[in-house]
Amino acid sequence: MTSSNATTTVSARRLPALVGLTTAAAALFAAGCFFVGTQQPVQAELAAQQPTQGGVGVLDFEKLQDQSAYFGSLRTELEELAQSLDGELRAEAARIQEEARQAQENLAPGSDQLLAKQRELGERQALLQFRQQLAQRQSLDAVKEKNLEFFEQVEIAARKVASERGLAVILRKNMRPMPANDEDAARLEAADLEQRIRGQYLVYVNAGADVTDEVVQALDMANEGQ
Question: What pTM does this model have?
């Protein structure tokens, strides 16, 4: 008899982060281009504190996901769905296991009653496996739905901020930053460092180009109460 430990379950670990939301949202602004600041040295300190006027903004997705209440609500919905499905399946698996144990203890070996109970439990185990497949599909469909919802809402919020700031383009901030110092660099393998260098789409970004806080605010305001 298959134990509950061997039973495939649906959990929050199966939901890409969301789970998946990171990838879907990042794809919105993925771009292989460079933004090089052109501020004069005497203006650099002041410009670092001012919104960019160059028509380009930068969005930090990790920060957006950490700070956005809307993103948190989507993640919570998926986690609750996964826990609900997982709980139902685990409960049925435990019942099957317990009934199998009792049948072995209380029914005579080879008896018609034991054979009938084993057939019943086998049918329930097969049904449980089918329900697991449906639950996994339901979870994946829910992730897909939330990915699309998040994609659309981030785009709307970014468009609003771009309009207000006079920006033509909003780019994704580099996902894997370069090491901050020699000590951090020493901890990286050569291949990892090379990948990070290749992934630096934005070589330089003026601090005033970051629109993350504004996009988070627009995103949460538009979806408040959802």
Answer: 0.60
Residue 26 has pLDDT above 60, yes or no: no
**Chain position carrying tokens 């496996």:** 129
**SS3 track for the chain:** CCCHHHCCCCCHHHCCECEEHHHHHHHHHCCCCCCCCCCCHHHHHHHCCCCCCCCEEEECHHHHHHHCHHHHHHHHHHHHHHHHHHHHHHHHHHHHHHHHHHHHHHCCCCCHHHHHHHHHHHHHHHHHHHHHHHHHHHHHHHHHHHHHHHHHHHHHHHHHHHHHHCCCEEEECCCCCCCCCHHHHHCCCHHHHHHHHHCCCCCCCCHHHECHHHHHHHHHHHCCCC
Sort 202 into a burial class: Cβ within 10 Å, 0-12 / 13-18 / 19+: middle
Residue with the bigger pLDDT between 199 and 93: it is 93
Per-residue pLDDT averaged across 61-73, rounded? Answer: 91
**Is the Cα dihedral 205, 209, 210, 216 positive or negative?**
negative
CA-CA-CA-CA torsion sign (135, 138, 144, 150) = negative
The first and second tokens of residue 149, run together, are 């919802």
Q: Are 36 and 205 in contact (CB under 8 A)?
A: no
